[in-house]
């Protein structure tokens, strides 16, 4: 993540908390028992194929409203989650990538073919979920994600945010997000130490070449550990490709689930 004025970073992060997405006709309900998340369900609940969407930090299940309501995806069951500590999860923030993945395990235990989409911090959580249950995850779409521990050490603005003064003046979601960022490099070290070669499902990495929040080198790192993965490095795109190029990613989801 490139350095920029601290309040500029906070404003950018706030965009990801409250994006102005199109609304969709969705059901909202608690996730299955033992799953520490709330979910939105859209599309066809009777479909044999499910897509699970995991948001970044900060964020909420509403980050994927453009996808839950997209006409080209309505043949699939679409499930977007609130991670622990965010949205309506009703849980404290959880900084462990593995524990967050474990909290979502029920969503890949439905007996359906299940693909997982993760943006930003949602990417390594999606990958961890696949490592925990490789026989139950049919494929991964990892967008602008963080993977390389050396690229994700705490930045100067994370350190400032981790102070008593910041705790008095900053929104709660940003403070919770910062807790995740302060230990992200250590969590990614744990993820990188696992055996990624067990993943034989289709994996697509999409990253904006101009991303200054999650360095594009993160996806190069993941590609080196997953040689069979496809990497799309998109020129003139940044970290918010998830919202700024919905048609591209909708096409990639349909292509992925057809494999």
TrEMBL record:
Coiled coil (residue ranges): none
Enzyme Commission designation: 3.7.1.17
Domain AB hydrolase-1: 51-244
Signal peptide region: 1-24
One Pfam entry name: Abhydrolase_6
Source domain of life: Bacteria
Enzyme class: hydrolase
GO cellular component, one term: membrane
Alphabetical UniProt keywords: Hydrolase, Signal
An example Gene Ontology molecular-function term: 4,5-9,10-diseco-3-hydroxy-5,9,17-trioxoandrosta-1(10),2-diene-4-oate hydrolase activity
Name of the protein in its database record: 4,5:9,10-diseco-3-hydroxy-5,9, 17-trioxoandrosta-1(10),2-diene-4-oate hydrolase
Gene source species: Grimontia celer
Encoding gene per record: hsaD
């Amino acid at each position: 993540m490139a350095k920029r004025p601290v309040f500029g970073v906070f404003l950018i992060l706030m965009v990801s908390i409250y994006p102005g997405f199109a609304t969709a006709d969705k059901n909202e309900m608690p996730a299955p028992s033992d799953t520490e998340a709330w979910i939105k369900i859209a599309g066809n609940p009777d479909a044999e194929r499910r897509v699970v969407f995991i948001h970044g930090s900060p964020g909420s299940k509403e980050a994927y409203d453009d996808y839950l309501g997209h006409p080209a995806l309505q043949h699939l069951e679409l499930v977007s989650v609130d991670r622990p500590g965010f949205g309506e999860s009703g849980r404290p923030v959880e900084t462990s990538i593995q524990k967050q993945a474990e909290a979502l395990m029920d969503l890949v235990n439905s007996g359906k073919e299940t693909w997982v989409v993760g943006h930003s911090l949602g990417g390594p959580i999606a990958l961890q979920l696949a490592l925990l249950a490789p026989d139950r995850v049919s494929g991964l779409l990892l967008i602008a994600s963080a993977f390389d521990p050396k690229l994700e050490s705490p930045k100067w603005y994370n350190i400032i945010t981790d102070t008593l003064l910041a705790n008095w003046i900053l929104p709660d979601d940003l403070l919770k997000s910062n807790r995740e960022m302060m230990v992200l490099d250590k969590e990614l070290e744990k993820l990188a130490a696992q055996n990624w070669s067990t993943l034989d499902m289709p994996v697509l990495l999409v990253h904006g070449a101009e991303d200054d929040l999650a360095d594009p080198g993160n996806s190069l790192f993941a590609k080196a550990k997953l040689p069979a993965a496809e990497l799309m490095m998109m020129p003139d795109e940044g970290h918010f490709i998830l919202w700024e190029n919905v048609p591209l990613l909708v096409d990639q989801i349909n292509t992925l689930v057809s494999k």
